Amino acid sequence: MKIHLHQFLPVLFLSLLINATLESQAQTVRYVAPAGTDAGNCPVGSPCATLNYAIQVASAGDVVQLAPGTYNQKATINKPITLQGAGAGTNPNVHSIITGNAPALSGRGITLAAGVANITIKDLRVQAFGGGSGIYGSGRNNNLRIQQVQVYQNLGGSSAEAGIHLNGPIADITLQNIDAQYNSTRGIVIWNGLKERITISNCTISNNNLAGLELQDGTASGITITDNIIQNNKDSGMSLVGLSAGAGANLITGNTLTNNGRFGIEVKLPAGNGQETGDGSILLMNNRVERTLPIAATELRDLAGIAVYRRNWTAANLDIPQGVVLKQNTVLGYRQASASDGFGIVVEGNNMQVLNNTVSGCDVAIQMQAGHLPYNALTTTDGDQGNLTDEYFGRGNTPGSSGVIRDNIFDGNITDTRYVGLPAPPEFDRTWIGTLSAEWGEASNWQEEAVPTATSDVIIPAGTPHDPIITDVQAVNNIKIAEGASLAVQEGALQLQGYLRNEGTLIQSNVGELTFTGVQRQTLGGTKTLEVQNLQVGAAGLELAGPINIKNKLSLNGTLYTNNFPLILLAGPAGTAQVTGLDKGNIAGLVTMQRKFAAETSPTTGYEILATPFTSASMQDFFGAELPENQALVQPFAYNEVRTADNSVNNFEQGWQPITNFNAPLQAGLAIRAKSEQGQTIMITGTLQNQAVEVSGLTRSTGRQSGWHLLGNPYAAPLDWRRIEVPAGMGHALYTLGESGNYNSYVNGFSTNAQEPLIQPMNGFFVRVQEGPVNFRFNPNQLANAVESPTPVQTENRSQLHLQIAAGAKKDVTIIYFEAGATAQPDSRYDAYKLPAVNATDPMVYSQSENEKLAINGLANLEAGQAVVIPMGVSGKEGEEITLQARLLLNFAPNLFIFLEDRETGIFQNLRENPVYNFNLSSPETTNRFFIHFTPDNISVKEAANTVAVYPNPVKGFLQVSLNGLNQEQSVAAVLYNNLGQVVFRQMLPVRNGRVAEKLNLANQLKGVHVLHLQTQQGIIQRKIVLQ
Q1: Any idea where the Secretion system C-terminal sorting domain is (predicted)?
Q2: Of 63, 56, 66, 4, residue with least CA distance to 28
Q3: Smallest Cα–Cα separation from 986: which of 1013, 1008, 1007, 947?
Q4: Are 990 and 998 in contact (CB under 8 A)?
Q5: What three-state secondary structure class fits 358?
Q6: C-alpha R_g of the chain
Q7: Residues 1007 and 934 occupy one common structural domain
Q8: Contacts of 348 (CB under 8 A, 6+ apart)
Q9: Is 73 contained in some domain?
Q10: 587-637: per-residue pLDDT in tens?
Q11: Which domain does 967 fall in, by range?
């Protein structure tokens, strides 16, 4: 093939140019190994021996990769490359170690040439350079990354050297996961000039001969120092000079500093904006500064955990420190044996914010100072650091200071807060005067003509024309209610960032609330017992400073510390005060919980079901060691389902087993029954349960009434049955004892009592095991979020009949409903059994299915044209007048007829038209008298017209006559014949709404057998009557 070279050359040159460009952009790895040879370009198969050679042949952007081993050599990086080792550590078999001994080398370990940017050093160790720093940046080494590097025992020849020493001006530096220890001067220092956007994080800096970490001389902006461990350095743990605006916020957070020399953290000549965010903000937050070792008695200098002050001024710095926020730091143990003071936190300068810190075990916890001498403006003159017998922190010399010290927590300090050289601010900046009205939100009611805000410290004094009333949400920092004064929270809430100190009276309505929202642990209480309606504990926690009674609700989002003060959950007409949020918080300390028995508690029985909300309790907690006659509770019983093992249908009551050992524990999650004295209150004290509780080994014996177990709510909050995952082998229904002595039932969203499905604190309930053994588990996430009512049944779309029986004030309810999946046979997912009333004469109603009594009966949905007949059972006091009432008929087809049939009287009553049916019970219990008909067909007019009830029979005095289905008539004649066929009584009975319901006065008639004729348009109805 013939090639025309003049045509091909342009293409060749273009190809070479493209390849050259790609080659220059590619990152080449230059390999170094202890046994390598300095020749060539250090490829992977032929590494070179020295760092400097590899750097020499490398191009910008290349990686110099060190194999594991020891490198007894120095290096200078003079181009933007990555120096990467095999790992930082002491084992040359796996780590890359650059060392300055054996033989000893003069000078520094790794030097970064001045002005060279974009250098990365990672995954190696630099150690034992006796003449200088381990890593030294000559200046302007911007975009520098040093990561996963150890710098140990670099014993530099001057105090300017360090493990890592960088020089400014410099910007965009990341030091991450550095381990800098046992260096002769500093661990890490960035010196001179402006330092911008510096990030130092997750480093360990310890045992260095001077400071641990320093940004020294000049100014710095956009500094982030987080999550470092700095300890056992002989001078300051962290020293920061000239923090200021220009490159962003300055954030010092999450660092742990322990047993460092003179200071934990020192901030010198800051120029902050006094805010927590924004360009120029300086925020020291969530740092822990601690002395665990005693300070020597020979130490005469003033030491401090955190110090902000004036020193080492240069022309680049402000003359007076400005605008630092110290928040949520913890400082401990700065106490000196000498005459000098150990300061937790000391600040001087303008607009200093010292907020929500915790300071413990110091001579002076927090000090703000001004006026220490000597001071010459805009000069390098420093304060007198001699051991002067004054209260000043000796290093600073700012002439004036201002700012806020607020909401800090103190423990075990000699002095908590001290102002030196300036007056202490007033304790309160808002004073109630109440001249105009009681309205909190009216500015004229405050001495300062301004309504308090979330940062206000408020005093409510006595003797004002009006006491303040809060009717919406108001916020304060701290508040004191003075002796003789009162504050009412009627609606909304009083939100507090700090403390509430009460020497007077706090008045709350049921909806008024105290809400603690601070970021540090807060304080509540005073010399008087404080009754709080609703109290909400914030996530930071709350500690008591006096006795507290809770009347309605205690909500936990954090820990409530009682500090051995009484904390009582009061009982009132609406029940016992409750604790919510046990899955989010807890109470550290003892709690007393009341249980009040109503003046007419269980009037027919006097029984109560009781459970403990505490982690441990014994029978003595409820009953005492003995049972005196005036004891609030007597006759205690546990329930033992094994005692019901025979096949008697009605032997449920045999499960009650008397308690005789009052030293025995009352197991959390179980309950007992006891006789109560009406109107009395019991009080039980213990540690509230907030963990999961398991009741194991629930069995079912062979008897027809076996499988019942009496469990108890183990928490001081309502237990929501809807949130409980019912274990396999257990029925889904819940059974609780009602006030009338009947048991209420709940299953599948249906309840025979308005309070279900919530189980109140200190209350118990029955469950039934279908097939054991079963383990039942309680958990705090099953608790109701607040005092709740269940969703009203009216919101259901299922067809349902609620039938109520009543005798006087005593009532009972049964429910029949229809739902897909339910069957005519008893099913634990859809049905609830009927437990016998504690008093056999109390009225009771239930439906029947396969010889089982059901309180709640779920059936399959009615098909079009289908008729269903449900046998019912009723019981009560023989001869007593009783009422059956369809309390609720819901979601049935409009053309469906619902009848109550009384086979003793022959009456069919349409419950849609006449929901109330009255009758006399002829025996204590009947199971074949009443039936409920759900039918698409109307009962025939003849049957309906001839359905009559006459009672009582035999009769003495008045005879009740009830007759239905008389829609076309105005009246019915009632004629009574004696046994001779003579008319002895006649009365016209009015027809109202197609029904007769009248009483006949037969008191003057002779005794014997009579016949009553009821004359209707359809004919005469006859009933035999016996007069007594």
Answers
A1: 950-1026
A2: 63
A3: 1013
A4: yes
A5: strand
A6: 44
A7: no
A8: 308, 309, 310, 321, 368, 369, 370, 372, 393, 396, 398, 401
A9: yes
A10: 999 999 998 876 554 444 678 899 999 999 888 777 765 544 446 677 889
A11: 947-1028
Burial 975-1010 (b: 16+ CB within 10 A, else e): ebbbeeeeeebeeebebeebbbbbebebeebeeeeb
The closest of 624, 623, 599 to 610, measured between CA atoms, is 623
Checking if the pLDDT of 1017 tops 80, the result is: no
Closest CA to 656 of 633, 672, 640, 676: 640
Residues 466-507 have pLDDT tens digits of 999 999 999 999 999 999 999 999 989 999 999 999 999 999
Dihedral-angle region of residue 257 (phi above 0 means left; psi in -120 to 50 means alpha; beta otherwise): beta
Q: How far apart are CA 639 and CA 705, in angstroms?
A: 13
Q: How far apart are CA 900 and CA 931, in angstroms?
A: 6
Domain end: 318, 351, 384, which one? 351
641 lies in the same domain as 497: no
DSSP string for residues in 31-50 = EE-TT--S-TT--TTS-BS-
How far, in Å, CA of 928 to CA of 924, rounded? Answer: 13
Domain with residue 218: its CATH number is 2.160.20
Calculate the average pLDDT of the chain: 90
Q: Are 978 and 922 found together in one domain?
A: no
Name 158's Cβ contacts closer than 8 Å, sequence gap at least 6. Answer: 185
827 and 720 in a common domain: no
Q: Is residue 791 part of a domain?
A: no
Sign of the CA dihedral with 814 first, then 818, 821, and 825 last: positive
Burial of 697 from C-beta contacts in 10 A (0-12 / 13-18 / 19+): exposed
Whether 11 shows a pLDDT value over 60: the answer reads: no
Question: Measured at the alpha carbon of residue 656, what is the angle toward residues 652 and 658, in degrees to the nearest 5?
Answer: 165
β-strand pairing of 110-112 with 75-77: parallel
Helix or strand holding residue 864 (H, E): none
Same domain, yes or no: 956 and 931 = no
Which of 529-546 are b and which e, b meaning 16 or more Cβ less than 10 Å from the residue's Cβ? ebbbbbbbbbebbbbbbb
Answering whether pTM is above 0.85, one says no
Cβ-in-10-Å burial (0-12, 13-18, 19+) of 129 comes to buried
The CA distance from 105 to 839, in Å, is 100
Q: What is the largest CA-CA distance in the chain?
A: 150
Quick check: bond before 169 cis, omega within 30? Answer: yes
Q: How many CB atoms lie within 10 A of CB 769?
A: 22
The encoded tokens of residue 402 equal 């201002």
SS3 256: strand
Kindly state whether residues 819 and 753 are assigned to the same domain. Answer: no
Q: pLDDT tens digits for 439-464?
A: 999 999 999 999 999 999 999 999 99
The count of domains in the chain is: 5
- Whether cis (ω within 30° of 0) applies to the bond prior to 374 is yes
Residue 369 in domain? no
**Least confident stretch, 15-19, 168-172, 243-247, 291-295:** 15-19
Q: Tell me, yes or no, whether 921 and 873 share the same domain.
A: yes
Which two three-digit tokens encode residue 76? Answer: 């200078």
In a domain, 407, yes or no: no
- Of 300, 317, 351, the residue that ends a domain is 351
Can you tell me the distance from the alpha carbon of 888 to that of 892, in angstroms, rounded to the nearest whole number? 11
Report how far residue 518's alpha carbon sits from residue 530's, in angstroms, rounded to the nearest whole number: 20
- What pLDDT is stored for residue 15 in this prediction? 38
Partnered with residue 868 across adjacent β-strands are 934
Shared domain check, 676 and 603: yes
